[in-house]
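re the bet — no i am not wrong, look at it urself. input seq straight from the record:
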Amino acid sequence: MSLNYNQAYNREIRKWMLKVSEYTENLAKQDLKRRFCPVCGSRNSTDFANNGFLDYDRCEDCNLVFMNPSLDGNNIQDGFKGDDHLLMEYFQIIIKFKDNPPVTKVNPRKDNTIKDIYRFKKSGKLLDVGCSAGDFLHKTRFFYQVEGVEVNPYTAAVAARHFPVHQDYLSDLSLDPDYDIVTLNQILYGVPDPVDLFKDILKILKDDGILYVNTPNSDSYAMHLYQGKINHLYGYTTQNVFNRKSLEKLAKLSGFEIKFFRTEWLDIYLSDLMQFFDNGDEFIHKRNIQLTDYERRMRIEDAMAKRSNFDLKDRGNYLVAVLDKQ
């Protein structure tokens, strides 16, 4: 079951997010540094959104949305490795509500998290970068030889009970270039230097290997509606939000090209809309658990959206892409 429908989980996450908001307010008072676009290096950017404390710009050249001025990227990276008590609290909540590993195969042609990989690679060696507690590895192990990369010691230990896990940043590992598939599931948004990450991935992929990316989409309907209150910009860990154009630029600069692209999830719910317009100070995107029957209503709306099979084109809240080497 999706954790979006779990009332106890949503209650703890909302409480945690309110702590994050207070912490972000204090961080915003520190000496932040202005930066050029972390993808194309352009000095030309315009205001895009403010999440209440931190500003985000959009690059006028490649369209990347990025935090500017920014927190120290090294501090953020160290935080994911365990130095940030709030991030550690989040990972503990995730593990607390973690489902049991699947014991049966999903249909790889229909499962939303595998189908885009399976259409290009039906077997081979898969490396999930930022594997967290290993949920994606549990699902893909039926089809691929799987390994993970994870810097957080708490979640890495959970994943390592079942799979080989390399506990460090990819740039600090010496992996052989024998992977057929590398995956980035909700990782790219928190990377200070995405070009270097893609170049590191290029080195370990076979010549016919593929890179799978799933990350927030800056062109989504939800982003343009909620702006600084969108879930993607909450807090302080989001460094970058991509769209098709900025991902194409990142691919070109690092030796990749996009062979498949789509977006998914509208992430605009009626209950959220009412809270956003009527009581914006208490609004938290997708976590308004103070509203009656909130999770049940979200489940109903998600089911309706799935049945309608509506084509969001490039405006879904997440982008999904498969890339190969140039």
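see?? The radius of gyration is 19 Å. told u. also The mean pLDDT is 96. so pay up
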